[in-house]
## 1
Amino acid sequence: MNLREMLEENKIYISDGAWGTELAKKGIGPGKCPELLNVENRKVLDEIALSYVEAGANFILTNTFGGNPYKLRKYGVEDRLEELNEAGVRISKDAAEGRALVLGSIGPSGEFLAPLGLVTKKEMIAGFVRQVQAFIAGGADAVIIESMTDLNEILCALKAVKDNSDYGVICSMTFDKGLQGYATMMGVKPADAVHALEKAGAEIVGSNCGWGIEEIIEVARIMRAETQLPLWFKPNAGMPELIDGETVYRHTPEYMASKIPELIDAGAKVVGGCCGSTPDHIRKIREIVNAINILNQPD
């Protein structure tokens, strides 16, 4: 079953949890190119990917979030883009073994589009096309464009996918809560994001990262009022706090799971976790979703 077929089913699905904070727990700190781990320390990524499959995730992502030319250039490895992205897909495919769909992850470029920055839309699209081609070579099942804050950039990434593959595409932006309501750091409101992404051909839209699950529920309600597209949400395990020199996320697996029915009522089709979430979070969410799916089965 592919992404589009799954979205037509009368079921709730589960994505994986965080990768970055899981890597940090394994001693992989900042300062190193995360995508280089795909070829230099595959074992640690194998463990993370497999842990989410065994926790019950229907979708697992790839360690390719920063695999675009702009971020890789900062580490001096832009010329290895295809190798690193393809390797990231193969790691998740090997862990999934057909039990979960593998989503090639595209994250922000870290650059501003002209006229705010120096990168043109044509150049931005071309960079994302390279990632898409590597996903195809690695055998990804679909694509997730995530953690985006600039509407024009996510539209560039979406165009790169739609024009160069037959992949189903999930588009997820990161919203913060301010005095004027929810918006990305670039000022994009959830309703505007939904309308533009649906028009551009996204199969599923949503939000990840940002705050915690309570705020994601509010974003879900806003989005559901604007579209009938399936919705995707991966909240953080709360806001990060620095305690005794360590970053702590206070939302336990039990707490996040307790909020999942409310998130589903708000419109979610796919639920998972972002920063601070773990395989234990996904395991608890799986228990809740299983019960809901059983209740939703026709007599």
Note: The longest helix spans residues 121-138.
## 2
Amino acid sequence: MPEIPRRPAELAAFLFRLDTPVSPRAYALTGFSLMALKYGVDALLVFVAMGRWWSPLAYVNPLLSQRLELERAPHWLLWTLLLGSLPFAWVGLSLTLRRVWDAGLHAAWALLFLVPGLNYLVMLSLCLLPTRERPARGSAPESAPVSGRMRSALLGVMAGALFALLMVAFSVYVLRAYGSALFVGTPVVMGVISGYALNRGTRHTVAATVGAATLTVVLAGGLTLLFALEGAICVAMAAPPAVVGSLLGALVGRALALRSGEPRVPGAEATLLLVLLPLLAGFEALPARRPLPVYEVASSVEIDAAPEQVWPHVIGFAELPRETEWVFQLGIASPRRARIEGSGVGAIRYCEFSTGPFVEPITHWEPPRRLSFDVTAQPAPMTEWSPYTNVHPPHLDGYLRSQRGEFRLVPLPGGRTRLEGSTWYTLDLGPAAYWRLWSDVLIGTIHGRVLRHVKALSEAPGR
């Protein structure tokens, strides 16, 4: 039984390969060491970025949004944590898959490693299960007729895409949930299905397996548009994690298929694997035990006018020029004009967008320094692209919700003003760390359009 190599090159091969068994001792030592390493790196990054230590108990919670105060986390930290998790996820899945084989279990049980929360119990159990001798296995044939290869590829791609379509329909239209089970778990299982079906009867190259997984994602996105389950914009936004997850799953599916000596998955195990992801989606759809985190997007612009001259254009402004930013060309809601009814605290401001008005009761009225307001009603955040008219998926209603906003006018030397604008919002999409990157960019672009317009009105001759 190979133990943990000491040379760096051999150690890297041991961690990332999929063809050698792993003993209980090697699994425990490697697993706990990697967990400690990842926690140390993550905790250091969090301390550098946010000035506080990250408790090890945070890893018990599978939701990153509740592990970390994401409303205060800078973007570079989110990107680093997300991208840094990928190699650890692959190594963990690789070690778990080989430990499952070594313990005499069916390889499909290794997929439980992907289930948040349950994966800790799986890893602990695998540290205790002894090695079991298994009968010699054959090897998958190296080649097959072209028709056979095409048939297996088509079967894998269509089966993976059909699974994705069913998960989208169940999660979105039955559970009304947009969580990690949909955007992370579903692509991984799609990849496992396509990679397994492609390589079960015939050994295919890694490149062919990756190509099939990518085609599965493309087909799933096309079917989602065809059946009007989603629009093109959201399908494109969901594509990056879908492709990464599908490629990861496809490599695991290929490894499962090439172990042709494996027994067939018993009915109970197959049933478990089929219902596990919908159950996880159902768990995510349960009412939140704690309020959603509130995120802030802040923008600013400097204006060659005094605060007293800028203030009238903050509380209300005339028609904005035609949109030129690419995000608005794609259908993201664009600000058009603003008006106010009344003055002072209790007045109602209406900021009209291309999809409808925001209703904003004034909560702080301090001319010409500060204007704050709540948001009691808002329109859809975008107009979806689709082959059909009036496609309105559930995520357009309340999954991205503005809570309040504020303008601050800071006087500068020379009769100038720095105009600062902030929006506070909640996000009910998972993983929140990924979707926040999109929402921050979109809200920041909206800010920029409004602030530039106020700047132009305030600096116009004869203002």
Note: The mean pLDDT is 83.
